[in-house]
Amino acid sequence: MGGRGRSEERIVAHLFGEGSALPALNRGELATKEVYEQVFALWFEHPERTDRQMVAWVEEQFGRSRRQAMADVANVKSLLGRVVNAQREWHRYTVLEMLREAYQLARDAGDVLGMVRAASQIGRYTQLDKPEPEGVDWSQLEAPSFEPTADASLLGITGAEDMTAARARLERKYGVVLVRGAEPHPAPEAVVVPEDDGAE
Questions:
Q1: What is the DSSP letter of 140?
Q2: Which among 156, 24, 143, 5 is positioned nearest to 78, based on CA atoms?
Q3: Which of 30, 100, 145, 186 is least surrounded by CB atoms within 10 angstroms?
Q4: Of 31, 156, 169, 45, which is closest to residue 98 (Cα–Cα)?
Q5: Which run of H or E residues covers position 108?
């Protein structure tokens, strides 16, 4: 892994790690860590903001180039994925935050019907309106009742070579036993070549 990867690991360690054994950060890494923290905080507070809006905010707030701002936002999104468990969980979190905010706005406005609608949507989205799935009763599972066979005709295959004769031919050729319990056929005798010791 290159230096950039190690730098990213050090920043992540400071964002999520604890204790005094954290690696020291240089000036550039401290600046990047500050950007990540601010983007984290803003995105948690306003999950409805798009990537483009966040990139523009980073450019304006920290004076980063567009390219660097895009990299910062992409890295923070990846880290948020770790926090809220990848892209699908991030979207789930975003929707739930919006529904909670809708509930709070309805409550502040004294809109009981709006509160019921928001609560109903939260329940539906989190599938609280569905019964809990029952566990599998493993005691009801039975092992398959079949016996292995070498009879190809059971599969509808006809005209196959006689396997017993083919097996016997291979056993004679290679001097091995292909069927358990069968007597081995004698292997062909090896030809012994006498060594030439140089004597006449």
A1: G
A2: 5
A3: 145
A4: 45
A5: helix 86-108
Global pTM? 0.40
- Read off the amino acid at residue 107: R
**Other CB atoms within 10 A of residue 122 CB:** 16
The pLDDT-based confidence of 186 (bands split at 50, 70, 90) is low
Are 75 and 36 spatial neighbours (Cβ–Cβ below 8 Å)?
yes
Number of H helices, E strands in the chain: 7, 0
Buried b (16+ CB within 10 A) or exposed e, 134-152: eeeeeeeeeeeeeeeeeee
- Could you tell me which residues come within 8 angstroms of residue 8 by beta carbon, excluding any fewer than 6 positions away? 75
pLDDT of residue 109: 93
Of 89, 98, 87, 83, nearest to 47 by C-alpha is 98
Collapsed DSSP state (helix, strand, coil) of residue 50: coil
Assess contact for 24 and 7: CB atoms under 8 A: no
